[in-house]
Amino acid sequence: MTGAASGRYWCELALVDGLVRPGVAIEIDGGRFRSVEAGTVPNGGHRLDGFTIPGMANAHSHAFHRALRSRTQSGPGTFWTWRELMYRAAARLEPDTYFRLARATFAEMALAGITCVGEFHYLHHTPGGTPYADLNEMGEALLAAAGEAGIRITLLDTLYLHGGLDAGGYREPDETQRRFTDGSADAWAQRVDQLRPAQTQRVGAAIHSVRAVDPGAMRTVADWAASADAPVHAHVSEQVAENEHCAAHHGRTPVEVFDDAGVLSGRFTAVHATHLTEGDIMTLAVTGSTVAMCPTTERDLGDGIGPTDRFRAEGIAMTIGSDSHAVIDLLEEARALELDERLRSQQRGIHPAGDLLTMATRNGHRSLGWDDAGVISVGMRADLVTLSLGSVRTAGASAANAVETTIFAATSADVTDVIIDGHHVVADRRHVGIDVAGELTASIEELMDA
Hints:
This protein is an alpha/beta fold. It has helices at about 80-90, 95-110, 135-150, 185-190, 215-230, 240-250, 255-260, 280-285, 295-300, 310-315, 330-345, 355-365, 400-410, 435-450; strands at about 5-15, 20-30, 30-35, 45-55, 55-60, 115-120, 150-160, 165, 170, 200-205, 230-235, 270, 290-295, 320, 385, 415-420, 425, 430. It is about 35% helix and about 25% strand. Helix 2 (about 95-110) runs parallel beside helix 3 and helix 12 (about 355-365) packs across helix 13 (about 400-410). The model has no long low-confidence stretch (mean pLDDT about 95).
């Protein structure tokens, strides 16, 4: 989807500046909301029946993990055994196959009401580690895929230098991991500086983890992000073993290592943040850092439940992501964040539905560097996601409980229409340009069953 879009829409119900309003007439000009007026009658614009919310932002994605859905579910294991299967898929990808898989995956996100994705990208070089002639060929494939799928992207180009960490220090990358590494943080920065995103695309930075990046290299990424005013994300304390190895070598928690390296700031998002100390939580709060929760992945891999009650208490902004794409449904992710907390605390309503929806919309966009998206308001980017209120899941909903119905009952299957930067990307539950199921089937079979 290219070019500035204009149009008129009329929403039966819409979430305008945080309030559910009936009869909302919307005018879009140049891909932004020109006017938003509630309490109107249908005005001849495209009618959106149901409940219309702002576009949702997927704060943490690994597009190629989509190929693993249902293929890693047999037999016992842990995160570490799952990772070996993931590495096998990573070893097979080339720019053309990555483009096709990512385009279909991003289109599936659009069908689910996702208007922007943060792609945590570390598949940089050829299998074996030799750079492509175009150093950013894999990253450019992801940018092109998002463009054709019609969603915005923040390409979180990821520094990955080491093969692991234990008490003895950092290990050399193994055969698969060699394609992830640029060899040094300086080489990473030089390569990232050559990326040329389109108008609806941005480049941010990521540090894979304390297992894969040493503190000196972290500082280089933090400096690059500060100079570019770009977001920087990192996997943080996803597994207990990660914390144990970090403590054995550094004598510090991962959060403390990141903080010592100058990474934590209002631009930083800690992904997972599952196994934190109280001191870690306070450090994230003081530095203004954000946390990205990925509940369907965290439970799929047996990672654990993050301390989201403490994040809320300390005012730490939370976002959500589909990460490994066990499912692509940010409503399920938001719902799971609260329900997991209920299981742990034996209390209900720690995270109200309105807060969970904000995590999926406004907070997610901000963590990806899009401060002008995630709310239906004049001047903001024109993203709209309409959900049916007449499915078997949502029947009985009203304006009074539309937000609660959306978070605690609706699924991605209830998304009927998606407008992104004014472009109607999903209409009547179908992507306007891509046979999503067909392309997913073809690209996954090509990658996994060849």
